[in-house]
Specification:
With about 170 residues, this protein is mainly β. The protein is about 10% helix and about 45% strand. It has one helix and eleven strands.
Length: about 170
């Protein structure tokens, strides 16, 4: 129990400490007080077994909500993973059962931070396409989002899709 609490505290600390990646809002979906924007993943090969999905979740309400599920029609149900700091100080990726979004909080799921993993992918994902994913929140209920499939970015991609001022 104590290790679970330490891991949970580490996830919350890392989510708060990791700056959001600059990006455009993309499609915005809303259910109740929860807004989800710019759901994206990277292109995969036909042999890919899993894919990571990133997005931004904002709670505009006055009560916390929890993201508890993510589903598509072509994968196993999604799992949430986050980098956590163990009692020994080592950083590891761990599965977390849910993600709490506090009132007024915005959390960006991003590479190196918290993200959704879809396992047993049954189709290739090509840049420029999209797929539907249903998110399940404890209070807001279900929310359909469109996940944009993007070109592979590489480690130094800042994810800013805005037009350059000229």
């Amino acid at each position: 129990m104590r290790n679970t609490l330490i891991a949970a505290a580490a996830v919350v600390g890392l989510v708060a400490a990791v700056p959001a990646i600059a990006h455009h809002a993309g499609e915005i979906s809303q259910a109740g007080d929860i807004r989800v924007s710019h759901a994206w993943t990277e292109e995969t090969s036909a042999m890919a077994h899993a894919v990571d999905v990133y997005l931004t979740v904002e709670n505009t309400g006055e009560v916390a909500d929890r993201l508890v599920g993510a589903n598509t029609g072509f994968t196993e149900p999604g799992v949430f993973q986050a980098s956590v700091i163990g009692t020994d100080g080592a950083v590891a990726v761990r599965e977390v059962p849910a993600v709490t979004i506090e009132p007024g909080q915005s959390i960006t799921f991003q590479p190196g931070g918290i993200h959704i993993v879809l396992n047993d992918v049954q189709q290739a994902l090509m840049a420029g396409d999209h797929f539907d994913m249903t998110l399940e929140f404890e209070t807001a209920g279900t929310l359909a989002v469109e996940v944009e499939i993007e070109e592979p970015h590489g480690e130094d991609h800042d994810h800013d899709h805005g037009d350059a001022a000229g």
